[in-house]
Amino acid sequence: MKIAVLPGDGIGTEIVAEAVKVLKALDLKFEMETAPVGGAAYEAAGHPLPESTLALAKSADAILFGAVGDWKYDKLDRPLRPEQAILGLRKALGLFANFRPAICYEQLTHASSLKPELVAGLDILIIRELTGDIYFGQPRGRRTAVDGHFPGAEEAFDTMRYSRPEIERIARVAFEAARKRSKRVTSVDKANVLETFQLWKDVVTEAHKDYPDVALDHMYVDNAAMQLVKAPKAFDVIVTGNMFGDILSDEASMLTGSIGMLPSASLNDKKQGLYEPSHGSAPDIAGKGVANPLATILSAAMMLRFSLNQPEAADRIETAVKKVLAQGLRTPDIYSDGTTKVGTVQMGDAVVNAL
Amino acid sequence: MKIAVLPGDGIGTEIVAEAVKVLKALDLKFEMETAPVGGAAYEAAGHPLPESTLALAKSADAILFGAVGDWKYDKLDRPLRPEQAILGLRKALGLFANFRPAICYEQLTHASSLKPELVAGLDILIIRELTGDIYFGQPRGRRTAVDGHFPGAEEAFDTMRYSRPEIERIARVAFEAARKRSKRVTSVDKANVLETFQLWKDVVTEAHKDYPDVALDHMYVDNAAMQLVKAPKAFDVIVTGNMFGDILSDEASMLTGSIGMLPSASLNDKKQGLYEPSHGSAPDIAGKGVANPLATILSAAMMLRFSLNQPEAADRIETAVKKVLAQGLRTPDIYSDGTTKVGTVQMGDAVVNAL
Ligand SMILES: CC(C)[C@H](C(=O)O)[C@@H](O)C(=O)O
Ligand SMILES: CC(C)[C@H](C(=O)O)[C@@H](O)C(=O)O
């Protein structure tokens, strides 16, 4: 088994180092190989996703990814910007199924913007389609408008699209995931306006026939954005497209108040996966040794479960993380009165000790 | 001056009746004419936006709109569904500038899902472009995929697009609005992924040169969805496209916890406008006399200010609404211990008395 380790930019290096430390402490048999990605790769090799990094990622069973991006790359042409690495990896490896849990840890309930009773025990799973939609649809670009409000003016355009099999496979992923949870799926669309999401709704409804034990409901994306604020615990599994999933999964993760705790997984149909924290590269705190490594450590646990067939090892990591929280250890992002403030490395060490 | 009164479906009739009562009590000179719209129009005339209703709307200086929609129309073909009336009115009248305030009233702070300190005094204005984007872009439809992940499969597609002048005019509306407020505009885009929103960002940045007294920042839509939950008071004016604005304005209105209080305005370049509550037709409580008419009454105030050139009358209504809240009167949606529960008609009467 091979893990490609891509730390990336900002706090990426620091948090991935802790996850690697935890993985090594498990004493399992796998190879790890590190390569640059994002801004770091642009600096080293002139491209955010160099050939060699992509080749490593393709050859690996799983990718442990830190984060990419920094303000200093904002002025680069779009194809050279750090985030192109992540879009490139998703596309090249066909990582169509993005799992984004939004979990509120008991000890961190107070950190949420929401009233404690609305988020205590929150455990929802957002499944976002990750290789289709307006992210990758062609044609796109700039041109002279021939119709619309201002014919003759310069316009820019993108294409939203989904095919039947693309929708069906992500719907099945959602129904299967719901079976292992509370057996409820909410499919989020905008079928009242978009052709793409009328097909989405039709295909999800058809696929549902094979999962009579799972309850399905449909919700418009604007309403979903509201219901997440109003009563997040009413959801179990949410399945939606790439664009809506981008927005709703970030909204949901912020509801927990502890985005530094949330892992994510992006899988293809061969169970190859990219695992990364839900948060970003946080250049403002990079190099200071204060970043929270737990989201990355929990991403490593997802990796063991989904791609490396080591569910017991995944359980061990998750139990260890709960233990360090119970011990009162907190990085600054989740610190509150009466707990013990620790840095990135100390937090990683504590998880290793708790294993 | 002529007002087209379009009550629509569900609670629409009840709440619009109260707004009309308040308008009449002001004793100003304008004509009001009522017409069916949405499901009610489909029942009466076979179409959600009959010719006669559209003609009335076009000939009026302003439209007072209730709400449209009911589950019973879900099975109709899309062109006949109630929400097509609202899309049709926006398009036919060129109502490109949608104003959606998210205000947290002092007495209702506790009703928010968010902790009181995060929303007390909240006053943000979302300006959503309303006649462009993927809502109206052509081509759209179904076809056989020729490329992508599953060539040969059935796919559905839509076109996102914005032209330079469309972006520029809504940006100017936002900068002008900010001038009358805290002079800060946040432009929300997804320039890291979409061609359309790279142009959006470029044009907003250029238009900003004419408003050096207004501060401008840019934020990705996923981040905006998070920051609204984390620190909503950090925003002043948010300007964004039709699709992102649909999602973010609903998210923001729910943050206040009292969506029954939030008005909206949709204007064209001749200051003709459509005024409607931010909430929907709520078929579950229709006909029970319990709907909150205040969002509609406050929409009538916006109408007086923006389209009918009666700012003093608008102020009078807004002051009257604050007065009834101070008197402790509450419809069920905003009721809490120690206040007085009233119905739709009583609330309307109270506003009239407070004028
Ligand atoms: C960086 C960006 C391209 C990316 C996305 O929009 O998918 C990010 O926001 C995410 O959610 O992983
Ligand atoms: C009913 C629907 C078409 C509409 C929209 O998406 O614009 C509604 O959600 C709104 O925000 O006014």
TrEMBL record, chains A, B:
NCBIfam families: leuB. Its cofactor is Mg(2+); Mn(2+). Substrate binds at residues 90, 100, 128, 222. Its main location: cytoplasm. The record marks 135, 190 as: Important for catalysis. SMART domains: Iso_dh. This is 3-isopropylmalate dehydrogenase. It holds the Pfam family Iso_dh. PROSITE patterns: IDH_IMDH. Catalyzes the oxidation of 3-carboxy-2-hydroxy-4-methylpentanoate (3-isopropylmalate) to 3-carboxy-4-methyl-2-oxopentanoate. The product decarboxylates to 4-methyl-2 oxopentanoate. Belongs to the isocitrate and isopropylmalate dehydrogenases family. LeuB type 1 subfamily. NAD(+) binds at residues 280-292. PANTHER family: 3-ISOPROPYLMALATE DEHYDROGENASE. Mg(2+) binds at residues 222, 246, 250. GO terms for molecular function: 3-isopropylmalate dehydrogenase activity.
